[in-house]
Amino acid sequence: MARYLVRRLLITVPVLLGVTAMSYLIISLTPGDPVQALIDPSMSAADVQIKRHALGLDQPIYVRYVKWLGEMAHGNLGYSFSSGAPVAGRITERIEPTLTLTFSALVLSYLVAVPAGVLAATRRYTWIDYGATLLAFLGISLPTFFLGLIGIYVFALRLRWLPTGGTTTLGGGGFLDGVSHLILPAAVLAAAGAGALTRYVRSSMLEVLGQEFVRTARAKGLGEGVVLRRHALRNALLPVVTLAGLQVPALLAGAVITEQIFEWPGMGRLTIEAINQRDYPVLMGITLAAAVLVIVGNLLADVTYSLVDPRIRYD
Amino acid sequence: MRVRWALVLLVVASLVVPLSPVRAAGPDSSFVVVAGMWSPPNNFNPINTDSSYGFFGIRFMFDTLVAARLENNKLVFSPDLAQRWTVSPDRQTFTFTLNPKAMWHDGKTVTADDVVYTVMTISDPKTETNRGADVAQIAGLDVHGKRAPGAAIGIRAVNDRTVEVKTRVPVDPQMFLELFGYNVYILPKHVLADTPPDQLSKSQFFQHPTVGDGPYKFAQYRTDEYIELAANDAYHLGAPKVRRVFIRIIPPASMVAQLQRGDLDVTAGFGIGEVPIEDWGTVKTMSNVHAASFPAPGYQYMLFNFQKSYLQDKRARQAMAEGINRQLMVSQLLRGEGMIADGPIPPANPYFNKAVKPWPYDVAKAKALLQEAGWDANRTLLLRVPVGNTIRERSADIIKENLAAVGVKTDIQKSDFPTLIAAAKKGDYDLMLIGWAGPTDPDVSSQYRTGGQYNFSFLSMPDLDKLLDAGAAASDPAKRKEIYDQFQAMFADQLPVLVLYYPNARTAISGRMQNVLTDPDGVYNFYSFRWGASGVR
Amino acid sequence: MRRPPRRARQPRDGAGAAKGRGVSTVAPAVAVVRAPRSTSFWAIAGRRFLRHRLAVAGLVALAVVGGLAVFAPLLAPHGPTTIDPAQFQAPPSGTHPLGTDSVGRDVLSRLLYAGRVSLTVGLLAVAIYVVLGTVIGALAGYHGGAVDTVLSRLTDVVLSFPPLIIILFAVSIFGRPSLANIIIVLGALGWPVVGRLVRGQFLALRGLEFVQAARATGGSDARVVAHHLLPNAMAPVLVAATFGTANAILTEASLSFLGLGVQPPTPSWGNMLTDAQSLTVLERMPWLWVPPGIMILIAVLAINFVGDGLRDALDPSLRL
Fold first, then answer.
1. What CA–CA distance (Å, rounded) separates B402 from C62?
2. Contact B250 A165 (CB under 8 A)
3. Is C259 on the interface with A (CB under 8 A)?
């Protein structure tokens, strides 16, 4: 296991290098540059030249990339072109809200999907199965941006149970206030994930239900409830739990739209802003952070998989 | 089993709790006002923020030498940091006397040295700034507002309270007061002097500008959520009545809901925080909200790429002016909240030429003109449109249909703004939609003069250049008016660009607010220290 | 997805797998109708599929939606971009059965034409990435060793980007988010999922007796891949492709929301729905959002049901 982990971590290095090189290329190939796009009657032509020089835009791409790599090796992600703030700080202050949102959405989607999937599997081809399937796919089938607007209309404007957006009431708020701001965006984000997850749980459960040890348990005369809880459920849920790690990139992407609609100050909005402003250092920081998150997520998935399933050995 | 599940839940809960935003302070019972704008500020650097969003926040915290307001189509200046000012008879020397009560938020007095420091910093070739054009009139600086090392420049502190500024040549005082007196925010020298100019843009101070001289003090900025400001009781023009102001970042679609719920007191205004036009009718019917709309200085226009020979024929451009139903855009897309004009000087500007009438919508005439110009009906023009302004995006669809009806084929290409500008610089377009809002001063050389910084259409009309140069050089307002009248007449005939419409500024103000001045720049936060609010939030 | 290699699993119907490979993979349902009592793999799958009522309903719905899109020029009462200057955001009426949109265009006509765009995006993008993913996955799975390592790491790199963000970049690079570019970008970035599926199947199948037998009897690599491995790996790919199609339709809608979707005035369900992104419209102008919303819902639901049915029929243990 230890050897496997070391090897996996070593492989991460070239993967990360690949990711950064590719991102740098992609970002620099994107038409438009951060200074050119600034249109301000108060800005003189000399101001533009000074800015280009200060941001290093007058240098060739490979020089900029090598410089960036050098700085990164020393733990410096540079300064945002647009705000002048250190990139590392800009990203860390955004990661927390994004993690809060995606993690809550993840938990929420599991809370819905596991019972729904299990029910669908145990009552296969009954109206319960169809109902669960229908609901699951309804969640996936509406674009997030529209589901969000409907959520705001119903729960914030008509019923007034929940706020329209933001993470706290202005200048105030406690734990419950934070939760009330979290519910709507987390639910909207969870909707899509829960749908797919329900199907996954259902398949997993179906597979386990067909296996011998379940049949043996039944043959022993154990009640159906006990068989389900003690034998089938535990085995069926193990692979499902490991799926959480793999959902990280999908959730991050989903959050782009959700954060936009609910004034949620997370990575998704930072990304959109950075793209719109061609804020290269911030964009590089984001891709790096995302790549690390995804790789860690993958690794965790593999490790938990081997921990929960003794048949799997890594070496 | 149960116990274990409970444990799992507990673990989950403990993970969620510390991540959730928690703040200790409860809501203040004193007067609190919430302003809403669409996007976050990029920073609070008064000489280097690249957006109107940044300036909306800065204007609460920093002051300029003079204040200005458009009244009856004339820009009227009033005292701010400067208590009074004089202009020499040769229109070349401006003397500002600072208000002795003007203080920085840390208790230090605002001095003439601060003003000199600000100009020295902006004109330093090592400083990242976007205010160069605002100081470019000062003697000793080049036309871009930069100074050579060691060069003497035309600004000096006569004493602690008096600043004397000399310009390179005689200038229209109105122009200078607007650009220098009103656009340049004064920086605190005692805080920033130790930071080298090339490090200034990265200074932490501009993320947390705790030392300003405006009516409100910086309290905190929760990135992308809201800016919190606290009343500055020592403000030299009077202590603000509203104790706290929150500037909240709100997506356009949510604004109407927040107004209805009473979560929002005032929208930030023209181009940075307006209720979407779909929701404007809803806002008008709200009993607790005052919906104000008024002519604004910004306009949307269509560029012709002058590198293309077929667009150099003025008849082709005139035909498009006649073939595009601009009235439909105003009446339907803008719901009547706007007007049509054929020049780059807004109808609400003192220099606007009333005698110039816009081209009427006339399909038959447009077709005839195109035929006369020998237009090739098989040619397809590339119409580039930036995303982000829904009305403008819709107007592109109308333009495409209208032009098709008179025999001009177009292909719409939407892209984000940086891509659009990159394409424009390469000349990779035929037609392009873009918006503009500039100062009240009528000098529009940067857009329409040959080689101008924002001349994206490779436009070069020597006759137009002559008028623009004459207008910028003249220091006598009456003479300038004459020149710009001619300029506008020529503009409407030549159509270097087609101005599509001037949208009104629309502002929603909560009924509990008092003394909110609606201004041509939107509500902008003019005289925010006089704002009042009744009731407790 | 990174998962440990699948435990070697016998094809669902050992004899059938070999027999069934000649049967068309395109229309399993048809095969069933012709030979209801057949015991071939595809026939059994077809019968299983028909038992999945939602899947059958989805197939029917999909046929209807597809038909409406194909025959849009015949069915639409107006041109999809024709502006009625007197009717902006007008409610449904005789001339405009579903009302008009924010630029005075007939909603019904746009809805029908939009189906063409949205379905094209979904189908073509997925077609591209199925081909790409199958080739890459097959190379990695068949050769193993260094080829596998390199290709798997490449897959890791592509998967390391949050999908929507990388799509945003890619669309910006082209500078022109046209229909073709959106399809290419979605296609170029979607292959890793298929790649991993195919690789996993190949790895699992490679060691099985019938494959080794084919090799031992002198079958060339190409022949073994084409006749033995690929047909058996296709079931999960087909399922992944169905889900992918639904996903691509939604991604186009998201891109429209961010302003980088299909170019106007060409309608797509996504940009029609984006145009209705206002609470006032939501409350008072249902004709602007209900039709495109329902069309997306039906199309995505139908495709997902079909995918679900295919999975249950072909490989119930497949977790997608």
1. 36
2. yes
3. no
Question: CA-to-CA distance for A67 and A55, rounded, in angstroms?
Answer: 12
**Closest by alpha carbon to C157, among A254, A92, A292?**
A292
Distance, CA of B32 to CA of B219 (rounded, Å): 13
Name B68's bridge partners.
Answer: B77
Give the closest-approach CA distance of C186 to chain A in angstroms: 14
Q: With CA atoms as reference, report the closest residue to B303 among B399, B220, B227, B441.
A: B399
| Tokens read off for C94 | 């005789």
Q: Are B58 and B46 in contact (CB under 8 A)?
A: yes
CA dihedral B276, B280, B286, B292 (to 10 degrees): 100
> Does the structure show a pLDDT above 90 at B356?
yes
Cβ contact, residue pair C280, B414, below 8 Å: no
Which two tokens mark B439?
């100062």
- Whether C259 and B416 lie within 8 Å, measured CB to CB: yes
Q: Are B509 and B266 in contact (CB under 8 A)?
A: yes
Burial of B19 (0-12, 13-18, 19+ CB in 10 A): middle
Backbone torsions φ then ψ of C74, nearest 5 degrees: -80, -35
CB A276 within 8 A of CB A260: no
Q: Chain C: which residues have CB within 8 Å of chain B?
A: 81-83, 85, 88, 102-105, 172, 175-178, 259-260, 263-265, 275, 277-281
Q: Are B36 and B227 in contact (CB under 8 A)?
A: no
pLDDT(B230) > 80: yes
Query: In what side-by-side order are the strands of the sheet with B497-503?
Result: B338-339, B497-503, B299-304, B431-436, B380-386, B409-415
* DSSP secondary structure code for residue A190 in this structure: H
Query: CA distances (Å), B238 to each of B213, B231, B414, B470, in order?
Result: 12, 11, 48, 42
Helices within B93-148 (DSSP H only): 112-123, 132-135
Residue C167 contacts residue C185 (beta carbons within 8 Å): yes
Q: Is A138 exposed, middle or buried (0-12, 13-18, 19+ CB in 10 A)?
A: middle
B422: nearest CB among A36, A166, A265:
A36
pLDDT lower than 50: segments of chain C = 1-36
Spatial contact of B101 and B239, defined as CB atoms under 8 Å apart: no
Higher pLDDT, A248 or A61: A61
Q: Cβ contact (<8 Å) for C169 and A252?
A: no
H or E segment and range at residue C145: helix C145-159
Chain C contact set for B400 (CB, 8 A):
81, 265
How large a percentage of chain B has pLDDT more than 90? 68
For strands B244-249 and B32-37, give the pairing: parallel
Q: What are phi and psi of A142, to 5 degrees?
A: -100, 135
Nearest CA-CA distance, residue C143 and chain A, Å: 20
3-state secondary structure of B68: strand
Contact indicator for C140, C229 with CB cutoff of 8 Å: no
Q: Could you give the 3-state DSSP secondary structure of residue B118?
A: helix
* Residues B242 and B532 sit within 8 Å (Cβ to Cβ): yes
- Measured from the Cβ of residue A115, the count of other Cβ atoms closer than 10 Å reads 13
Q: pTM of the prediction?
A: 0.84
Is A172 close to B23, i.e. CB distance below 8 A? yes
CA angle A37, A43, A45 (to 5 degrees): 85
- Please give the pLDDT value at position C31: 34
8 Å CB contact between B65 and B81: yes
Contact B454 A36 (CB under 8 A): no
> Which amino acid is residue A220, in one-letter code?
K
| Chain A (233-292) residues lying within 8 Å, Cβ to Cβ, of chain B | 260-261, 263, 265, 269-270, 273, 275-278
